[in-house]
Amino acid sequence: MEGIMSDSVSLNASKERGARTYSGYLMFAVALVLLGIFIWSIFRAIEMQGGIGNIGACVGWFVAFTIASSGFYMLQPNQAASITMFGSYQGTDRKEGLRWVWPWMTSTKISVRANNLISEKIKVNDLRGNPIEIAAQVVWRVTDTAQALFDVDDYKAFVLAQIEAAVRTIGSRYPYDDIEHKEVTLRGNHDEVGAELRTVLMERLAVAGITVDECGFTHLAYAQEIAGAMLRRQQAEAVIAARKKLVEGAVTMVEMALHQLSEKDVVHLDDERKAAMVSNLMVVLCGERDTQPVVNTGSLYQ
């Protein structure tokens, strides 16, 4: 069913093509010439005291001048005009300046410039089910004017709706954060997630003849109702991670100390004294406060 629907969409998709239009500057000159001939024909008819032929010539030159003076439109840089005749698409004109088409044709202007859009903040549940607030910035532009005008009802509203849908899709695929940095997250992998967001948007906007130049997140945070709890959780995870690194380093240093003492034959320790030394070193290395040294002036076993 999906394959049939996609095939029908591709068959019904419009495609931009060049329109047959003319230089407006040339037609302006032609209109001035026709206006001059029309005025001359009026004086000619007055001199000849009317006559069907002279009156018919005046009417003919007036109609020609009316046709030539109609159909002008102006195109700025990075602006296009879709030409239709009695509802049928005739092509798109992308040549800037003063342009002209036959009066019975209609021109609809459309911008092909880059548009910068910042979406509103929306609430999404991430991969772990945590509610987050997210907003995106998207730079998009029209590449196929026929699709933008005739394949969707309102291409600007279509862009807004698809951006929101794509942001929700990407936001639910990844967790907000990962303290162990073992998976892709929204907060820690901006470039990778932004590239996937762009891919999803281009797939969604292709039906409207729109491409996405760049995109990224402008706002990313936990929702207000869990922001405090998640902050405490992040702080706890950070403390645990720091303690883990500290203990791993302390164990390595104690192991190195015992090995060097034994290897260099500095002192011989039994198992009980080794355990006491390990305990003291771990306290010194893992403690948060400065330790006070105690000098033993007696024997090792006192």
TrEMBL record:
Main location: membrane
Subcellular location: Membrane
InterPro entries in UniProt: Band_7, Band_7/SPFH_dom_sf
Occurrences of domain Band (ranges): 70-238
Membrane topology: Single-pass membrane protein
UniProt cross-references to SUPFAM superfamilies, sorted A to Z: Band 7/SPFH domain
Alphabetical list of SMART domains matching this protein: PHB
Keywords on record: Membrane, Transmembrane, Transmembrane helix
Gene3D superfamilies in the cross-refs: Band 7 domain
An annotated GO cellular component: membrane
Positions of transmembrane segments: 22-43, 55-75
Pfam families registered for this protein in UniProt: Band_7
Name under which the protein is recorded: SPFH domain-containing protein
